[in-house]
From TrEMBL:
The keyword Nucleotide-binding applies. The lineage of its organism: Bacteria, Bacillati, Actinomycetota, Actinomycetes, Pseudonocardiales. It comes from Allokutzneria oryzae. This is RimK family alpha-L-glutamate ligase. Residues 90-285 form the ATP-grasp domain. SUPFAM superfamilies: Glutathione synthetase ATP-binding domain-like (SSF56059). The keyword Metal-binding does not apply. It comes from the Bacteria. Signal peptide: none annotated. InterPro entries: ATP-grasp, DcsG_Biosynth_Enzyme. Keywords: ATP-binding, Ligase, Nucleotide-binding. One of its GO terms (molecular function) is ligase activity.
Amino acid sequence: MSPRVLLASCAELPDSDGDDTPLPGVLAEVGVKAEWVPWDAISEPADLVVLRATWDYPHRRDEFLAWCDSVPQLANRADLVRWNTDKAYMADLAETGLRVVPTELVPPGVELAAYETEIALKPSVGAGSQGAGRFLPAERERAMAHVAALHAQGRTVVLQPYQPAVDEEGETALVFFGGRYSHAFVKGPMLPRGTVEMSALFVEERLRPTVPDGARRTLAEDALDAACELRGVERSELLYARVDVLTGTDGAPLLLELAEPSLGFRQADPGAPLRFASAVRAELARR
């Protein structure tokens, strides 16, 4: 009997967000039966449950994490999901010596401190740039209002200095399957001044394929190694991972985020979905 894999989505996007809709067909080519199911509608056991388009988790994180804990065959592991769905993990990675975008947490009840350069503000639990905005020093009043709005929802705010190179270069997302590099793509600037999207599941991305340079590859590899050491996991146990890097003010790459739902299949070479399918087969064999 073919192994059964469930690709977890959400009620708003039951058949994925469009990026990896073809995965069931690709998996079928290598003898794996797969289907899309919203995560909160999964009730039957499967050989593997893969988190793919669970974009509604930021507003339902406690419920989502409780569900993750209840799924023994979850990829990636539930404790990794708990750690990586709160951007407080950036502080953990910074302590390892990795170059990261300087990150400050502003929890509810704490006022936004004065700032002298342009900043980005985003919820610490969030994905797809939802609830994120950029603010100049002269826009402190607007920035404080945004922080207050997030605090009113009970959400901690992440403050980071805005990296202006993003306006020209965007961010480079490097994707790994089973701990091995697969492909990369570039995301265009996501945070226009004066606009903060608070209601959509995610902000529409402008993407294009790319071949990352050695510095970005090195940083992404180091990020995976650091995360795995922190969480006590082997790289091969990560069915998928995504590391986003950008150019800092000194011209060197900085780690921005590790692992988000979209894996950029539409910007990748035709072999990328097959590499993912092979990683799924390897994960099934490992378990």
